Amino acid sequence: MRILTLPAAVLLALALAQPNATAEPAAPAAAPAAAPAAGPVGWAAVGEGTTGGAGADEDSTYVVATRAELAAALENGGNPDEPKIIHVVGAIDGNEAPDGSLLDDQDYAPGWDLDRYMACFGPDGTEWSDDHHPWCDAQSRLRTTGSGAQKQQIQLTVPSNTTLVGRGADAWLRGIYLSVRLGENIVVRNLHLEAPVDHFPSWDPWDGDNGSWNARFDAMSVVTGSRIWIDHCTFTDGRYPNSGAREGFHGEPVEHHDGLLDLEDGTDFVTISGSHFADHAKTLLISSGDGQGDSDRGRLRITLHGNLFEDSQQRSPRVRFGRVHTFNNYFTGSTDDPDYPMTGENAGGSDYFLGVGVESLMMSEYNAFDVTGPGASADLLVANYGGHQFLDRGSWFAGRPVDLNALAERKFDAAAAEARAEAEEAGTEPPAWALLTFTTDVGWDPADAYSYTPLRDPAEVRDTVLARAGAGRAPTA
Questions:
Q1: Is the Cβ–Cβ distance between 71 and 64 less than 8 Å?
Q2: What are the two backbone dihedrals, phi and then psi, of residue 360, each rounded to the nearest 5 degrees?
Q3: CB atoms within 10 A of CB 447
Q4: Model pTM?
Q5: What residue ranges do the domains of the chain occupy?
Q6: Where is the signal peptide (predicted)?
Q7: What percent of the chain has pLDDT over 90?
């Protein structure tokens, strides 16, 4: 690790250097391709604003190229919450051991065998039994201990008052579970984040109609964080798409990925801008459950703008409780993509872009949607999970105006009717949300909280996002 002696403001400009800037820590970076944005637009700009490590001392400015260096920089010489600026060069792998080798499942849990683990659920995956095979008890313990060991290795926690920024166009965090726990005033910019591969996913036969795999590690998660700005980052499954996973139960691949970005447990004042979310099943979750109202209600104030959601099958985002403003984003997918096809409710699937959950207060403005392939339709744009409030202004599907409010109302009415019918059949009371009436009154207006100027032409939104979203792209002013 090298501690830089340049002033912090100069280093922040260097971090967003032109794409051919060197990835060697000791070499100077090239001039920036464009001036970085002065600060976030949206909820992260409200109140105290979000400045990350601005004002960091010279000895709290780092250039890192290995996992060990990154971990040490986050500790900041024993003062983790003091302002710090950390520049990432090249690719850092969360599975990197001190000797530089990459750890795998046998390093975390020698003897672990996914095939043997699956066999303990029986041929149809319906019920675990230690009696199915003599190795079942051991495989159960290995899955638990291996998962814990992998978590300890790959999880790196970002403390308060941190700017974590990639230098040049090729700064990667691969297989790192980047987390914020109670941290505030954090900036993450110009980084590629490749989602961790969970070597020890768990199978739950009772999750959904046919059971489900559950992976543990997100590319990034924020739990009870505040004043967070995520800008010009690329989140992706990268080298490990679901289509490359071995076949699990019922002909479906084993799921080794959790979310790309989760915002949970009262996280507040967040802006996600100019970023690229690609090639993933369940992308961006806001609030971890319907029962989290005590921690989430009145919080989860989040702005998403200028982002590209590409082949993101679900949760772009899925929202509970939060006052979420999503504007000038571009959403694109295909019903016949070989790795992440989108299949909507009208075709017997469950994929969607915007998920309206319990007590969510989502405001959508001037977003552009394109879906190609057989059966592609606006049905994929919105799904309902118990939310009765939603407002859209001015969005487009396939370049033409689309009435997302009518679609959201139809989806809510169908979900509420189904919930009431299920309750009647079971002889129980329906959930409270199923007795409500859909409304476009979300109870707040972003313009009352912060200043913003949306683009109002679908081609301009699409072209601007495609040109600028993601790591290594020129940031917007």
A1: no
A2: -75, 150
A3: 9
A4: 0.92
A5: 2-102+140-468
A6: 1-23
A7: 87
CA dist 314 and 382 (Å) reads: 10
Locate 135 and state its tokens.
């190795």
- At 128-148, the pLDDT tens digits run 999 999 999 999 999 999 999
Residue 236: pLDDT above 60? yes
Q: How many residues does the chain have?
A: 477
- Secondary structure element (H or E) that encloses residue 107, with its range: helix 105-108
Laid out side by side, the sheet with 284-286 consists of 155-157, 177-181, 220-223, 261-264, 284-286, 318-319, 354-357, 382-385
Give the H or E element holding residue 458. Answer: helix 458-468
List b or e across 387-404, with b for residues whose CB sees 16 or more CB atoms inside 10 angstroms: bbbbbbebbbbeeeebeb
- The C-alpha atoms of residue 404 and residue 394 are separated, in whole angstroms, by 9
Give the CA diameter of the chain. Answer: 70
DSSP state of 20: T
What value does the CA radius of gyration of the chain take, rounded to a whole number of Å? 22
The pLDDT tens digits for 283-334 are 999 999 999 999 999 999 999 999 999 999 999 999 999 999 999 999 999 9
* Token pair recorded at residue 82: 């003091």
Q: In which band, very low, low, confident or very high, does the pLDDT at 21 lie, cut at 50, 70 and 90?
A: very low
The DSSP result for 223-285, as a single string, is ES-EEEEEES-EEE-TT--GGGSPB-GGGPBP-----SEEEETT-EEEEEES-EEEEEEE-EE
Q: Flag whether pLDDT at 166 surpasses 90.
A: yes
Instruction: Give the torsion through C-alpha atoms of 295, 296, 298, 303, to 10 deg.
Output: 140
* Whether the Cβ atoms of residue 275 and residue 235 lie closer than 8 Å to each other: yes
CA 260/CA 278 separation, integer angstroms: 9
What token pair was written down for 454?
A: 């949306």
Q: Out of 2.160.20.10, 3.40.50.720, 3.40.50.2300, 2.40.50.580, select the CATH number for domain 2-102+140-468.
A: 2.160.20.10
- Which tokens go with 228? 């967070």
